[in-house]
């Protein structure tokens, strides 16, 4: 599958993501290992943002 | 997307995990009309809300976000899976325990207290140490404490009272159960067992989020019966039931209403996402 390219908002490393990535998905930056959230996907334009901190009421 | 059934489904979330992606892919495969809604970016105003869905699958990572959104959609007359009643019954571990004991379903002896003196009385009532203190609403095996003696009980309670949020000050106590290096997670949908895994680890906390290994678990008649009863006790729907094994019997520990199931799907080979979608369609049609 072809990959889309974007940039880490923290360390500016180029990150390639799968084409079927979804907005609001969380990934890990291979450069700085921070958690990054997919802010939006528009065609082949993927915008990444720093992911929110894990909260007490998350998950099960 | 081409509509096949004409039903409008929504996936309500607050972060897309692998679990949600499995649902999205399954819906695509079946050409379903699925709207992906991030609850964090909606305005929940009944006077301006425009969208109608036949069923909303609530899969929020944040329990708080998921619960408020569920209340909203239910009051607008939409069906939400799981319902706010089921969500509340499961989110609150004390309430789950009360429901299980009310329905005479084997569970772990428990008590809820707010202070050290009452905690010590509860320890006696529960038959002594060790026991486990946990938040009434918690997840991923976080903020649990195994308490072996009065000294640690006093320390833990003081820490919670001084440093904890108000919810952490409700002290939910359970007798500690000596598990055989694993517990069981059973997926139950519409009061029927779908599949199950063992969660194996040398640590007493067996959440896969804490590193336990998932292995396929065959569900026998006895386990199936207790899970079906536990599911009905909290109101049914899509549930992940945590079970402990003891020499004599199975005990229900807790029930999850927006279970993570990617590990279950991977090791059992059962397409849980497909079962979830199927159940949503059934509810939408009903
Ligand atoms: N009373 C107990 N006795 C023994 N182990 C326990 C007990 N309560 C919890 N655990 C262990 O901790 C894990 C997490 O506890 P649980 O009540 O399921 O909370 P969470 O919502 O964090 O998953 C359980 O799966 C089990 O391995
Ligand atoms: Mg659990
Ligand atoms: Zn980075």
UniProtKB/TrEMBL annotation, chain A:
What InterPro entries does this protein's entry cite? LysW (IPR005906)
**One Pfam family of this protein, by short name?**
Zn_ribbon_LysW
> Entry's PANTHER family?
LYSINE BIOSYNTHESIS PROTEIN-RELATED (PTHR40393:SF1), LYSINE BIOSYNTHESIS PROTEIN-RELATED-RELATED (PTHR40393)
Protein name, per record: Lysine biosynthesis protein LysW
Natural source organism = Candidatus Gottesmanbacteria bacterium RBG_16_37_8
Lineage, opening ranks:
Bacteria, Candidatus Gottesmaniibacteriota
Automatic annotation (TrEMBL), chain B:
- A Pfam family this chain is assigned to: LysX_preATP_grasp
| GO CC terms of this entry | cytoplasm
Q: What are the required cofactors?
A: Mg(2+)
Identify the pathway.
Amino-acid biosynthesis
What SUPFAM superfamilies is this protein classified in?
Answer: Glutathione synthetase ATP-binding domain-like, PreATP-grasp domain
- Give the keywords, sorted: Amino-acid biosynthesis, ATP-binding, Ligase, Magnesium, Metal-binding, Nucleotide-binding
Q: Which PROSITE patterns match?
A: ATP_GRASP
Gene Ontology molecular function: any one: metal ion binding
Q: Which residues form the ATP-grasp domain?
A: 97-281
**PANTHER family associated with the record:** COENZYME GAMMA-F420-2:ALPHA-L-GLUTAMATE LIGASE, RIBOSOMAL PROTEIN S6 MODIFICATION PROTEIN
Family per similarity comment: Belongs to the RimK family. LysX subfamily.
What NCBIfam families does the entry give?
LysX_arch, rimK_fam
Name the UniProt record assigns to this protein: Lysine biosynthesis enzyme LysX
């Amino acid at each position: 599958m072809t990959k889309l390219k974007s940039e880490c908002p923290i360390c500016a490393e180029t990150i390639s993501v799968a084409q079927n990535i979804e907005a609001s998905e969380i990934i890990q930056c291979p450069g700085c290992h921070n958690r990054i959230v997919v802010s939006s996907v528009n065609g082949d334009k993927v915008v990444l943002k720093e992911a929110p901190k894990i909260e007490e009421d998350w998950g099960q | 997307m081409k509509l096949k059934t004409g039903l409008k489904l929504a996936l309500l979330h607050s972060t897309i995990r692998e679990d949600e992606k499995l649902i999205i892919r399954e819906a695509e495969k079946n050409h379903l009309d699925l709207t992906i809604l991030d609850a964090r970016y909606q305005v929940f105003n009944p006077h301006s809300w425009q969208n109608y869905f036949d069923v909303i699958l609530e899969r929020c990572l944040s329990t708080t976000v998921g619960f408020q959104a569920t209340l909203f959609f239910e009051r607008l007359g939409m069906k939400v899976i799981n319902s706010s009643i089921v969500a509340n019954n499961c989110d609150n571990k004390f309430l789950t325990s009360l429901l299980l004991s009310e329905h005479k379903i084997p569970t772990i002896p428990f008590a809820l207290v707010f202070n050290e003196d009452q905690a010590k009385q509860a320890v006696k009532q529960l038959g002594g140490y060790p026991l486990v203190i946990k938040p009434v609403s918690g997840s991923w095996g976080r903020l649990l404490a195994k308490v072996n003696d009065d000294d640690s009980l006093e320390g833990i309670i003081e820490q919670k009272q001084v440093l904890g949020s108000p919810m952490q000050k409700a002290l939910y106590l359970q007798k500690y159960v000596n598990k055989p290096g694993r517990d069981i997670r059973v997926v139950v949908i519409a009061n029927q067992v779908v599949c199950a895994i063992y969660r194996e680890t040398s640590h007493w906390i067996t959440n896969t989020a804490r590193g336990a290994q998932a292995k396929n678990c065959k569900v026998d008649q006895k386990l199936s019966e207790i899970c079906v009863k536990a599911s009905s006790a909290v109101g049914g729907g899509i549930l992940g039931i945590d079970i402990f094994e003891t020499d004599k019997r199975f005990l229900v520990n807790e029930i999850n209403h927006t279970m993570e199931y990617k590990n279950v799907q991977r090791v059992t080979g059962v397409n849980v996402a497909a079962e979830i979608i199927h159940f949503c369609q059934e509810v939408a049609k009903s």
